[in-house]
Specification:
This protein has six helices and 13 strands. The chain has a five-stranded antiparallel β-sheet. Strands 7-12-9-10 form a four-stranded antiparallel β-sheet, with no helix packed on it. A two-stranded antiparallel ribbon has the order 1-2. Helices cover 37% and strands 24% of the residues. Helix 2 (47-53) crosses helix 3 (65-73). It has one domain (4-194): Sandwich (Jelly Rolls), CATH 2.60.120.10. It is of the alpha+beta class. A hairpin with an 8-residue loop joins strand 9 (104-107) and strand 10 (116-118).
């Protein structure tokens, strides 16, 4: 079995741009700003820094430290300008994201429910990838300059294959978070309908 640290080192050799094309590590400098796409290229987060941040997230708070350490080895950081689109509804769902700083608007085309804004530090979005869906169900746009932690779902699955108990905890907490998000959306929707009723 290949060690996670080795897999992480191999993953550093190539990364994938928003366009879907592979960008060789030799052709870019981590953290350099791409003014065309309005993003910084993914930068490897120091393992110790990521390992300290992840438990602050509700999704990772009860994960065993051994699994946290391995997830930290596969996490990358991206910095995005206001207006940058992280992914669009219908794009291949390869990564999930953890909010480090900023605000991200999530919208579903032609949806009856209102949009959702991710603002909580440590909040997970792009959850389609984490639950095995092939395509993102929403579009994610940065409302302000935003920093995110980005994890490839296949790498995460490999970590949880080695730490199945932590995997069960992760998916339970993810289900709870998605349920709470749905409740929050319904409350927002009802509030907006009530305001419209009073205004009419």
């Amino acid at each position: 079995m290949q060690a996670v640290g080795t897999r992480a080192a191999n993953r550093k050799k190539r990364t994938r741009g928003e366009s879907g094309k592979d960008i060789g590590a030799d052709s870019m400098t981590p953290g350099v700003f791409d003014r065309v796409r309005g993003i910084h290229f993914p930068k490897k987060i120091p393992t110790e820094e990521a390992a300290m941040f992840l438990p602050k997230s509700d999704i990772f708070k009860d994960i065993r430290q051994e699994a946290i350490n391995e997830i930290s080895e596969i996490a990358f950081e991206e910095k995005h300008e206001k207006g940058a689109v992280l992914f669009r509804e219908g794009d291949a769902a390869r990564y999930f994201y953890v909010l480090v700083e900023g605000k991200v608007l999530l919208t579903i085309q032609d949806a009856a429910t209102p949009h959702y804004v991710a603002t909580k530090i440590g909040e997970l979005f792009g959850w389609s990838s984490a639950v095995g869906r092939d395509f993102y169900s929403a579009t994610a746009e940065c409302l302000v300059p935003t920093t995110v932690m980005k994890v490839d779902r296949l790498d995460l699955e490999r970590v949880f294959d080695e730490h199945p108990r932590s995997g069960k905890v992760f998916y339970r907490l993810l289900a709870e978070a998605l349920g709470q998000r749905w409740i929050d959306l319904q409350r927002t929707w009802i509030s907006e309908l009530e305001r419209e009723r009073k205004a009419s």
